[in-house]
Protein backbone atom coordinates (compact mmCIF):
# COMPACT_ATOMS: atom_id res chain seq x y z
CA UNK A 1 0.00 0.00 0.00
CA UNK A 2 1.19 3.50 -0.77
CA UNK A 3 1.20 6.34 1.73
CA UNK A 4 -1.46 8.09 -0.38
CA UNK A 5 -3.74 5.04 -0.16
CA UNK A 6 -3.23 4.85 3.59
CA UNK A 7 -3.86 8.60 3.99
CA UNK A 8 -7.12 8.20 2.04
CA UNK A 9 -8.12 5.28 4.30
CA UNK A 10 -7.34 7.22 7.49
CA UNK A 11 -9.19 10.30 6.20
CA UNK A 12 -12.19 8.16 5.27
CA UNK A 13 -12.32 6.64 8.76
CA UNK A 14 -11.93 10.02 10.47
CA UNK A 15 -14.62 11.83 8.44
CA UNK A 16 -17.27 10.00 10.44
CA UNK A 17 -15.49 8.62 13.47
CA UNK A 18 -16.98 7.61 16.79
CA UNK A 19 -20.10 9.73 16.30
CA UNK A 20 -18.23 12.83 15.11
CA UNK A 21 -18.42 14.14 11.58
CA UNK A 22 -15.54 16.18 10.17
CA UNK A 23 -16.06 18.06 6.92
CA UNK A 24 -12.81 20.03 6.52
CA UNK A 25 -9.89 18.70 4.50
CA UNK A 26 -7.89 15.94 6.19
CA UNK A 27 -4.26 15.57 5.21
CA UNK A 28 -0.79 14.79 6.56
CA UNK A 29 -0.61 18.06 8.55
CA UNK A 30 -4.04 17.63 10.18
CA UNK A 31 -3.60 17.31 13.95
CA UNK A 32 -5.42 14.47 15.69
CA UNK A 33 -6.21 16.41 18.85
CA UNK A 34 -5.92 20.08 17.84
CA UNK A 35 -7.70 19.99 14.46
CA UNK A 36 -10.00 16.99 14.75
CA UNK A 37 -10.83 17.61 18.42
CA UNK A 38 -10.37 13.98 19.37
CA UNK A 39 -9.32 12.63 22.78
CA UNK A 40 -6.86 9.97 23.95
CA UNK A 41 -9.52 7.27 24.02
CA UNK A 42 -10.25 8.09 20.38
CA UNK A 43 -6.63 7.22 19.55
CA UNK A 44 -7.17 3.76 21.05
CA UNK A 45 -10.43 3.32 19.13
CA UNK A 46 -8.79 4.50 15.92
CA UNK A 47 -6.04 1.92 16.40
CA UNK A 48 -8.62 -0.84 16.83
CA UNK A 49 -10.57 0.40 13.80
CA UNK A 50 -7.47 0.43 11.61
CA UNK A 51 -6.45 -3.05 12.78
CA UNK A 52 -9.88 -4.31 11.73
CA UNK A 53 -9.68 -2.46 8.41
CA UNK A 54 -6.27 -3.91 7.56
CA UNK A 55 -6.90 -7.32 9.10
CA UNK A 56 -3.81 -7.42 11.28
CA UNK A 57 -2.46 -6.46 14.68
CA UNK A 58 -0.30 -3.32 14.65
CA UNK A 59 2.02 -2.10 17.44
CA UNK A 60 0.02 1.05 18.24
CA UNK A 61 1.13 0.85 21.87
CA UNK A 62 4.71 1.64 20.77
CA UNK A 63 3.53 4.49 18.57
CA UNK A 64 1.45 6.05 21.36
CA UNK A 65 4.22 5.56 23.93
CA UNK A 66 6.56 7.53 21.67
CA UNK A 67 3.96 10.27 21.35
CA UNK A 68 3.63 10.42 25.15
CA UNK A 69 7.36 11.11 25.56
CA UNK A 70 7.32 14.22 23.36
CA UNK A 71 6.94 17.82 24.41
CA UNK A 72 4.42 18.33 21.58
CA UNK A 73 1.83 15.66 22.24
CA UNK A 74 -0.38 16.23 19.24
CA UNK A 75 -0.20 13.91 16.27
CA UNK A 76 0.07 15.06 12.66
CA UNK A 77 -1.72 12.40 10.64
CA UNK A 78 1.29 12.16 8.33
CA UNK A 79 3.19 10.49 11.18
CA UNK A 80 0.39 7.98 11.64
CA UNK A 81 0.42 7.28 7.90
CA UNK A 82 4.21 6.72 7.96
CA UNK A 83 3.81 4.34 10.91
CA UNK A 84 1.08 2.42 9.10
CA UNK A 85 3.07 2.34 5.87
CA UNK A 86 6.08 0.81 7.68
CA UNK A 87 3.99 -1.88 9.36
CA UNK A 88 1.69 -2.68 6.46
CA UNK A 89 4.61 -2.97 4.03
CA UNK A 90 7.35 -4.79 5.96
CA UNK A 91 10.72 -4.87 4.20
How would you describe the overall organization of this protein?
This protein has 91 residues and is mostly helical. It has a single domain (3-88), classed as Non-ribosomal Peptide Synthetase Peptidyl Carrier Protein, Chain A. It is 54% helix and 4% strand. The chain has 4 helices and 2 strands, in the order αββααα. The chain has a two-stranded antiparallel sheet. Helix 1 packs across helix 4 (77-88). The two termini are 13 Å apart. The mean pLDDT is 90.
How does the SSE layout of this entry go?
Elements: H1 3-15, E1 16-17, E2 20-21, H2 40-54, H3 60-68, H4 77-88
Antiparallel strand pairs: 1-2
Helix pairs in contact: 1-4
In brief, what are we looking at here?
This protein is mostly helical. It has a single domain, classed as Orthogonal Bundle (Non-ribosomal Peptide Synthetase Peptidyl Carrier Protein, Chain A), CATH 1.10.1200. 54% of the residues lie in helices and 4% in strands.
- End-to-end C-alpha gap: 13 Å
Strand order of the largest sheet: 1-2
Which sequence of SSEs, written as H and E, runs from N to C? HEEHHH
Query: What is the arithmetic mean of pLDDT?
Result: 90
Beta-strand content estimate: under 5%
Enumerate how many helices there are, as a single number.
Answer: 4
Largest sheet: 2 strands, antiparallel
Helical residue percent band: 40-55%
- Total domain modules: 1
Number of strands: 2
Using the coordinates above, name the CATH class.
Mainly Alpha
Provide the CATH architecture: Orthogonal Bundle
Amino acid sequence: MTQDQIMNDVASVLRDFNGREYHDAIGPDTLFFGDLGLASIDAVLLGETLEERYGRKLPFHLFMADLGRRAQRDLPLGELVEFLHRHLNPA
